[in-house]
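Dig into what follows:
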Amino acid sequence: MSAWLAWQDPHVLFPDKPTNHLDVETMDALADAINEFEGGMMLRTITKGPGDILAYKELLESRLADEESQLTKRTHNV
């Protein structure tokens, strides 16, 4: 359904948590697509984080590394 709606050339997008569970490359592609979109966009809440998008990516990569480390520890302790 979402692909069909995008194909219809909408004037306004209402994304719901568009960056949840995206890897860094997909987040970049989404940002490029949003920048090229000529319509409007309605967001629920925007929270400004410290730094720019690069700082946010580094934070996500750090969290991922921590999660992988914890998973490795758990599998070795079993």
